[in-house]
Amino acid sequence: MNQKEGGPCAAVFDLDGTLIDSAPDMASAVNRAFVTHGLDATDPAVVAGLIGNGAHRLVADLLARQRIPAAPSDIEALTDAYLRCYAEAPVVSTTIYPYVAQDLAALKAAGWRLGICTNKPQALTHAVLAGLGIDHLFDAVRGADAVPTRKPDPGHLRAVIEALGVHRAVYVGDTEVDEATARAAGVPFRGVGWAAPGRLSMPEAERLARLSELLT
Ligand SMILES: O=C(O)COP(=O)(O)O
Ligand SMILES: [Mg+2]
């Protein structure tokens, strides 16, 4: 996609695993919540592989891994505890992936409108973007609780694109949830080359080496 083809274009990004490596802080928060409730902590590398479907699903998946039967109300309580722990320390070990900040700035300077479509809750998304000093780059940000139905429902991505006020957009992500969301919304999808193995169905060779490739 190219600005020269007419009309503003937008690049909408998934957040965790796409623009930022937030897995260490997310793993630390969910493990603090589990341990506080008398449950076991999980290897942060395992937690990292489960991120992308939102907080509730992360907690449910971790409980299932530990073979702990849990009522919906237990999962709710643990999810609330996880999100409280995360909000207390949203940016301690989280980092922006290499070149992402400068490539986002280059896209913005070239006239692209930039958006975020993430399954992270809205307040935490803003806290993390602000903590990393990249919140000013985005024209529309929609977390999981800022839309009636979240990813993989295509309405989540469509809501971001509508807020950006563009007719042409691309979605960039790191998991099959993102791929499926884009497909269902009829939006072109690009996967990041630094996505963890097995998280995207598209071949490695077809993924973005750098976000600046969107400019070409
Ligand atoms: O699973 C989450 O909490 C958020 O993940 P996402 O930013 O990749 O959508
Ligand atoms: Mg992701």
From TrEMBL:
Example of a GO MF term: phosphoglycolate phosphatase activity
Matching InterPro entries: HAD-like_hydrolase_sf, HAD-like_sf, HAD-SF_hydro_IA, HAD_2, HAD_sf, PGP-like_dom2
Gene Ontology CC annotation, any one: cytosol
UniProt KW keywords: Hydrolase
Pathway assignment: Organic acid metabolism; glycolate biosynthesis; glycolate from 2-phosphoglycolate: step 1/1
Enzymatic reactions: 2-phosphoglycolate + H2O = glycolate + phosphate
EC numbers, comma separated: 3.1.3.18
Single biological process term from Gene Ontology: DNA repair
Top EC category: hydrolase
Domain of life the protein comes from: Bacteria
Family: Belongs to the HAD-like hydrolase superfamily. CbbY/CbbZ/Gph/YieH family.
Protein known as: phosphoglycolate phosphatase
Lineage, uppermost ranks: Bacteria, Pseudomonadati, Pseudomonadota, Alphaproteobacteria, Rhodobacterales
